[in-house]
Amino acid sequence: MASSSPDAPRSCDCFVSVPPASAIPAVIFAKNSDRPRDEVQEVVFVPAGIHTPGSRLQCTYIEVEQVPKTHAVILSRPSWLWGAEMGANEHGVCIGNEAVWTKEPVEEGEALLGMDLLRLALERSSSSREALHVITDLLERYGQGGSCREDPAPFCYHNTFLLADRTEAWVLETAGRLWAAQRIPEGARNLSNQLSIGTDISAEHPELRTHAQAQGWWGGQGTFDFAQVFSLARQPVRMEAAKARFRAGRELLQQQPAGGITAEVMMGILRDKESGICMDSGGFRTTASMVSILPRDPTQPCVHFLTATPDPSRSVFKPFIFGVGAAQAPQVLSPTFGAQDPVRTLPRFQTQVDRRHALYRGHQAALGLMESDQDQGQQLRQKQRDLEREGLEAVRGLLAGEWAPPPQELGCLFQTFVEREHQAYT
After folding, report:
1. pTM of the shown model
2. Does position 111 have pLDDT exceeding 90, yes or no?
C-alpha cells in the first residue's frame, strides 16, 4: 500500500452551521486546508463552459468523460494539481475534503484524487445532494488514488467530504469505492481526518454492509455503525491527533450561544491554534482557508471568503461573489510550466519549481516582518484586520439590504480586496 510515514501529522478541518444554529437565515461553511508547509495554494476562478459531446477532461492523473455543460467555480487548490481542497460554484454549492485512512487499503496506481472529485462535483452539480451523487458515481466508475503531494515519496489516502448549499449539508465518507452519507438538515457539524458517521446513515453504497460482513468486520445482525466498522482497529498517531481536533472543533461550535454562529465565529475557529485547528506543526501548516455564507433567500448572493495565503491567524479573508465581472485575480494565480511541469513528466515530482504567486510572496515577506520587527509587524497586522473588517461590513450591508452596488462591482469585489492586500505588503 502506497503511503508516507504512518505517524506524520496530516490534518484538515471542515465546519458547517445550518439554521437555526446560524445567527442569520443562512448556511455557513468553513474549512482549513492543512498541507505540506511549503506548498502554495492558489485561488482559481473558472467560468461556466459548454463542451463538445464526447470530449475528454484531463484531471490530475487520469482523463474522464466531459459533460455538456459545467458551472462557474471558485477554487482554492494546491497549485500543482487539477482539483481543489475547497471551493464553491455559482449555485451556492460548497465542498471541502479531508484525508482519511480506513480498513480498506489504498489502491495502487493513479485514479481520481479526492480533490479532483471535489472539483468535478462543483462543476457538475446545482445542489449538495446532486454533488454527492456526482462524487459517488465517479468513485464507482474510476476509483480514488494517486499521490496527494508534490514529492517523489507517494502519499495516498481516501477522502471524506463536507457538502453544503443554501438549504442543507451532507457529510460523505469513503473507504475505497464504498461510502456512507449523512444529511445535516439543521445544527452545526464538523469534520477532521477520521470517520465520523455512526449509525445515522442517510444513504450508502449498496454493497457497504455485505462487504463489511464478508470481511468479518460486522456480524450482519443488529446495529451497523459505519465509523466503528470501517475505522482502523489500531489508530496511528495521526488519527489520534485527528480525534483531538475533532473534539476541539465540536466544543468550539458548542460554545456558541444558540443561533449564534456567524462567518466571524467560523473565522475565529479556523484561527484557533491551541486546538491545532490552525496548524503549524513540523512539515505541515494551514496553507489556505475559506468561509462561505449561503443565504436561504435565493435572491441574496452567496459570499465566499478566501485567504489564498497560509496561516489564517495572520491572513485576510477576502470576499468573492459570483456575477457579472467575476474574473481571475492574477495576484493569486501561480505560474504554469506546461509539459515541463514535474507533475506531468514521468517519473513524477523529480524536480521542484517555484509556484509562488504574487500575493503569496508579499504575504511571506509580511510574515517575516511580523516576526522580526514588532512595530512594523503590528502595523501590518492592523492593516490586515482593517481590510478584513471592511469586507465583512460590506457583506453585512449587502445581505441586510443596506448596500446595493451594481453587479459589475460585486463581481470585482475579490479582485479589489486582493489588490489592496497586495499593495499593503509592497
Report:
1. 0.95
2. yes
